[in-house]
Design brief:
362 residues; alpha/beta; GMP Synthetase, Chain A, domain 3; 3 domains; ten-stranded mixed sheet; three-stranded mixed sheet; 10 helices
Length: 362
């Protein structure tokens, strides 16, 4: 929401009918009016209840051109456009926004991305991020989600050839920075493509490794999620957070400067990976232990399972504690390198006859 306090913004307030869009816009108008901003509204019909110092125009009592001329002559700081419906409304919003007027539009949409899609075909695709930079989706009287838009020249997600690079409107979750949608021209069509949260960009994996190594000085248990090219989330145990952040945030600021990323430090228990892991292990506790034979070689530990467990994900436990999940080969063999820390733990467990259990992943 801090972006809304800037000058000349393009904001859409979207939601289904009766969910509180207009009420939110009215509260926003009153807030701006209280900060001595010049606010005007365009309404159809004119039904907002606002302070007398806010000028309200009813577009149903005049033409779009008349409203356009009046607003450009008066140059308000912000214009609240309540109930954008037809193509003329969208074009008026776009022209005023490109003229430098801060615009906040209210419109119907069943999903946040639908608010952006309603501009497609009415306004050129490449101009949309210059008109709209934030979408606030209202659901049941509350802010359900906030999206931010910008234009990038890139290879769309899911494509790999560099000659497929093109201008792409990228839509991110405002809070997390996670990429949610990409909008681009494909042949003669304009496509809106949801980006799967499970999709990993190779450079992000490399960045995650470097970030994890940097934070390994502060904590042994770290998970890293790179959500964009300039932002990541680092999950660490709660008792390690204060040391990482430092007094007044001084330590995390120096790490951010060193890595060139904005870093959000969160509790490890809130990590999506941890949640999935704990759910899986809860299910695994009721699983049957698998039969296996284990051998220690010079550089690896090898588990040989029954043939029915070939090509399966297998959870390995040492003394009841989860160690790792490995994938068995087509010959039902799991080979774990002794060069890494987990491999050494498992090798020692075998050597000292500790309890090792293998269970099929739920």
């Amino acid at each position: 929401m801090t972006r809304l306090t800037g000058q000349a913004e393009g904001v859409l307030i979207a939601g289904a009918p009766g969910h509180g869009k207009t009420t939110f816009a009215q509260a926003l108008t009153e807030f701006y009016a209280s900060t001595n901003k010049v606010i005007k509204t365009v309404e159809a019909p004119r039904d907002l209840v606002l302070p007398p110092d806010v000028t309200q125009y009813a577009i149903s009592h005049g033409s779009s051109q008349e409203i356009h001329d009046i607003l450009l002559l008066s140059r308000p700081d912000y214009t609240i456009f309540d109930e954008m419906r037809n193509t003329d409304d969208f074009r008026l919003f776009a022209d005023l926004r490109l003229s430098g007027v801060g615009m906040i539009g209210v419109m119907h949409a069943t999903k946040p991305i639908d608010a952006i899609q309603r501009f497609i075909g009415r306004i050129e695709l490449g101009v949309i991020p210059h008109i709209v930079d934030t979408v606030i989706f209202i659901k049941n009287g509350e802010i359900g989600s906030v999206f931010s838009l910008k234009m990038e020249v890139k290879v769309p997600s899911g494509m790999f050839e560099q000659d497929l690079a093109r201008p792409v409107v990228v839509v991110h979750d405002f809070e997390t920075g996670r990429l949610e949608f990409e909008i681009y021209s494909y042949g003669e069509e304009t496509v809106v493509v949801p980006v799967s949260a499970e999709q990993h960009i190779p450079t992000h994996s490399l960045a995650a490794s470097a970030i994890k190594q940097e934070f390994s000085r502060y904590s042994k248990d770290i998970e890293v999620e790179v959500v964009s090219n300039n932002k990541c989330i680092v999950f660490v145990p709660e008792n390690d957070r204060s040391a990482i952040i430092g007094k007044g945030g001084s330590n995390i600021e120096s790490i951010e400067k060193k890595l060139g990323l904005s870093i959000d430090i969160r509790d490890l228990s809130s990590s999506p990976k941890s949640s999935k892991k704990s759910e899986r292990f809860a299910d695994s506790s009721n699983s049957t232990n698998l039969n296996f034979t284990v051998k220690i070689h010079k550089s690896s530990v090898v588990f040989m399972l029954d043939v029915e467990n070939a090509d399966k994900d297998i959870d390995i436990f040492v003394e009841g504690d989860y160690a790792l999940t490995a994938h068995s080969s087509k010959k039902a063999i799991i080979k774990i390198s002794k060069k890494n820390k987990i491999g050494k733990v498992i090798a020692d467990a075998v050597k000292y006859h500790e309890k090792i259990e293998l269970k099929r992943t739920a």
